[in-house]
Amino acid sequence: MAKPVVAIFDVGKTNKKLFLIDENYEIVFERSARFVETVDEDGEACENLESLKSSVYDSLNQVLQMKEFDVKAVNFSTYGASFVYLDEHGKPLTPLYNYLKEYPEGLKRDFYSKYGGEEKVSLETASPILGSLNSGMQVFRLKKEKPEVFAKVKYALHLPQYLSYLITGKALADITSIGCHTQLWDFNKNQYHKWVTEEQLDAKFGEFTPADATLKTAFDGTTFEVGVGLHDSSAALIPYLENFNTPFVLISTGTWCISLNPFNQEPLIAEQLKQDCLCYMHFKGKPIKASRIFAGYEHEIQLKRIAAHFDRAAYLFKHLKFNPSLVLKLTNKIPENRKEQTAFSAVSAFGERDLNVFQTAEEAYHQLIIDLVKQQIYSLKLVLNEGVRRIFVDGGFGKNDIYMHLLSSSIPDIEVYASSVSQATAIGTALAINSAWNANPAPTDIIQLKYYSAIQRTL
Q1: Quick check: 183 and 177 in contact, CB under 8 A?
Q2: 231-459: what fold?
Q3: CB contact at 8 A, 250 and 392
Q4: Where are the domains of the chain?
Q5: Taking residues 120-141, what's their average pLDDT?
Q6: pLDDT > 70? residue 456
Q7: What is the pLDDT of residue 457?
Q8: Exposure of 70 by Cβ count < 10 A (0-12 exposed, 13-18 middle, 19+ buried)?
């Protein structure tokens, strides 16, 4: 008998994956693809939209023909801040512009002077000023720089909703994409921001639809439910929201280390926005206060510097164990190790340190993690509120023994756990529409936890 499954397309910047997940949330099939990037009209690298479209159709056709699986539903999660502009026939009118594309200063000035200034717009939309990463600014740019193209735009869909559109033919908008550092959503009024309606953009975003909604769709002779798609950062939080009721903060660590607090509903203030705080959006429509630092990226850069200085291979540091006596030695050698960081900094103190003061590579690496944890604690406290008793750390730093011990010792009143969910984004995307495809309730044992005790106060 065919096994009931949900098909999840998980589209990252580098890897594009398709997972089949069964009713017990076991991944029973996985397919991965990587595409060669193409370029936009300015010669800048961007996603190959045609390859992505073909891959979605080909992969779905493949799994629908597998006799051992019965596909009950399909859903999508992708990176954010990326718009696909469609004409009346559903054909893309432009490349999928890269969210790192430089934003013209003149246009930026025009926009903010028209709509009340950077601080006002930033506060109302819970979005730091991020140029093209504020995806609403991409739509504004297209309207002002290419009015003849914009005139043909029937729909402007964020990437998850475009993938859903490929299957359903329905143009939909979803709060996890619209509400995340886009400058499109007014968090105070819980509606599109005034500038969006003044520029007459809201009609182009499709019908606003709950993130857990599905649409019965026939595709290639098979009928199944199709989700509206989710922003990947919001999707990765869903397993935690489903498994834990008591207030927590999730520190999601990768290139960026993002502290997500779904239990902090206080509006962002200007000072927080200047310190790289923002709001993501819960798939049920509540703001998720977040702060972020570029710590994973800095870790890689500084690790290479340490490895080169001490003539060691960088990979050897991955499995270094926490050495409390070395931390004590460093605390005596570098007195500021005893103090908390008291001001926001985009980078840690380690980049300015002279590596000659360290006797060994292990000593230098412990200092790097001390500095990164200080920066992390400062960033975390920007979104921490009363009642949070647990911190979960997932991603790369959750596997770093030194980082986890130093973090738990720096916040001894809060329980600290390394957590892992295999393919958290895909699992969260499936959980969002669980009732549409799964005869069972959502499981409560998806997350593996490892507790780090703060018995030894090292800092």
Answers
A1: no
A2: Nucleotidyltransferase; domain 5 (3.30.420)
A3: yes
A4: 3-228, 231-459
A5: 96
A6: no
A7: 44
A8: middle
pTM, entire model? 0.89
pLDDT in tens, 26-76: 999 999 998 999 999 999 999 999 999 999 999 999 999 999 999 999 999
Measured between alpha carbons, how far is 267 from 287 in angstroms, rounded to an integer? 9
Amino acid at 151: A
- Please report, as a single letter, which amino acid is at residue 63: V
Q: Report the length, in residues, of the chain.
A: 459
Question: Span 414-418, mean pLDDT?
Answer: 97
What would be the CATH architecture of the domain defined by 3-228? Answer: 2-Layer Sandwich (3.30)
**Three-state SS sequence of the chain:** CCEEEEEEEEECCCCEEEEEEECCCCEEEEEEECCCCEECCCCCEEECHHHHHHHHHHHHHHHHCCCCEEEEEEEEEECCCCEEEECCCCCECCCECCCCCCCCHHHHHHHHHHCCCHHHHHHHHCCCCCHHHCHHHHHHHHHHHCHHHHCCCCEEEEHHHHHHHHHHCCCEECHHHHCCCCCCEECCCCEECHHHHHCCCHHHHCEECCCCCEEEEEECCEEEEEECCEEHHHHHHHHHHHHCCCCEEEEEECCCEEEEECCCCCCCCHHHHCCCEEEEECCCCCEEEEEEECHHHHHHHHHHHHHHHHCCCHHHHHHCCCCHHHHHHHHHHCHHHHCCCCCCCCCCHHHHCCHHHCCCHHHHHHHHHHHHHHHHHHHHHCCCCCCCCEEEEEEHHHHCHHHHHHHHHHCCCCEEEEEECCCHHHHHHHHHCHHHHCCCCCCCCCCEEEEECCCCCCC
Tokens of 93: 């009118």
Cβ pair 391, 311 in contact under 8 A: no
The structure tokens listed for 457 are 């106060």
Closest C-alpha among 152, 116, 28, 78 to residue 422: 28
Which residues lie closer than 8 Å to 358 by C-beta, 6 or more apart?
Answer: 364, 367
Q: Which whole number is the average pLDDT over 309-332?
A: 94
